UniProtKB/TrEMBL annotation:
Its job: Condenses 4-methyl-5-(beta-hydroxyethyl)thiazole monophosphate (THZ-P) and 2-methyl-4-amino-5-hydroxymethyl pyrimidine pyrophosphate (HMP-PP) to form thiamine monophosphate (TMP).
Protein name as annotated: Thiamine-phosphate synthase
Reaction(s) catalysed by this chain's protein: 2-[(2R,5Z)-2-carboxy-4-methylthiazol-5(2H)-ylidene]ethyl phosphate + 4-amino-2-methyl-5-(diphosphooxymethyl)pyrimidine + 2 H(+) = thiamine phosphate + CO2 + diphosphate; 4-methyl-5-(2-phosphooxyethyl)-thiazole + 4-amino-2-methyl-5-(diphosphooxymethyl)pyrimidine + H(+) = thiamine phosphate + diphosphate; 2-(2-carboxy-4-methylthiazol-5-yl)ethyl phosphate + 4-amino-2-methyl-5-(diphosphooxymethyl)pyrimidine + 2 H(+) = thiamine phosphate + CO2 + diphosphate
Cofactor remark from the record: Binds 1 Mg(2+) ion per subunit.
Gene: thiE
Reported cofactor(s): Mg(2+)
Gene source species: Fulvivirga sediminis
Length: 210
């Protein structure tokens, strides 16, 4: 599909999710393994800390020409000149992000309820997160578990790029792509791995062959 979101393997990273190495090292290894877009998601950091981490991460990703997306913080995103912002249903609405950042390159919005598919907020997003595809211990305040049927349903309702997130791994990536997702997003499959580069490579292989 032609889109402004040509990415296939999306790393959603936070410092605390990285169990075996510093998060900047994990991000770099993941990119070497095949991650082509990275989101910094720091739910517990102060703005100052978030900003500092974002600057560091941006510096690493720029070396590989991999875009950085910031979770739910417009100020941090703009200050580090990120490629975009990702928001969920309880965050700043996408329309407001666009009003305040006219040339935002990449605006992501999580779909947690089928009713959202009719909303103008969904129409304004550049890509949609299917959240979560499968239940996950990484984010427990979720409403639905979309499963493969949910991915197919959302696919039938939009041409927008779809990013699948929630307990995604090398075992289930191919079937989720076949169900209609364009991109696979992971936290723990890479951040909790002893070998983030290899984990990314395995995921990338599954995506490419499906
Ligand atoms: N949004 C929906 S599920 C999720 C987010 C941020 C967490 C995904 O983490 P994991 O470890 O890949 O299941
Ligand atoms: Mg949120």
């Amino acid at each position: 599909m032609a889109s402004s979101f040509p990415y296939k393997l999306y790393l959603v990273i936070s410092e605390e999710a990285c169990l075996h190495d510093h998060f900047l090292k994990v991000a770099e290894q993941a990119v070497k393994g095949g991650v082509d877009v990275v989101q910094l998601r720091e739910k517990n950091a102060s703005t100052e800390e978030f900003l500092r981490k974002a600057f560091w991460l941006k510096e690493v990703l720029d070396r590989y020409e991999v875009p950085l997306i910031i979770n739910d913080n417009l100020d941090v995103a703009r200050q580090v000149e990120a490629s975009g912002v990702h928001v969920g249903t309880s965050d700043i609405p996408p329309s407001q992000i666009r009003e305040n950042w006219r040339d935002v390159a990449c605006l992501g919005y999580s779909i947690e309820d089928l009713n959202q598919m009719e909303s103008s907020e969904t129409k304004t997003a550049d890509y949609l997160g299917i959240s979560p595809v499968f239940k996950t211990d990484t984010k427990t305040d979720t409403i639905i578990e979309w499963g493969l049927s949910g991915v197919r349903k959302i696919r039938s309702m939009t041409d927008k790029p779809l990013v699948a997130i929630g307990n995604m791994n090398a075992e289930n990536a191919a079937e989720v792509i076949k169900a209609g997702a364009d991109c696979i997003a992971v936290v723990s499959a890479i951040c909790a791995s002893q070998d983030p580069a290899k984990a990314a490579e395995q995921l990338r292989n599954e995506i490419e062959k499906s």
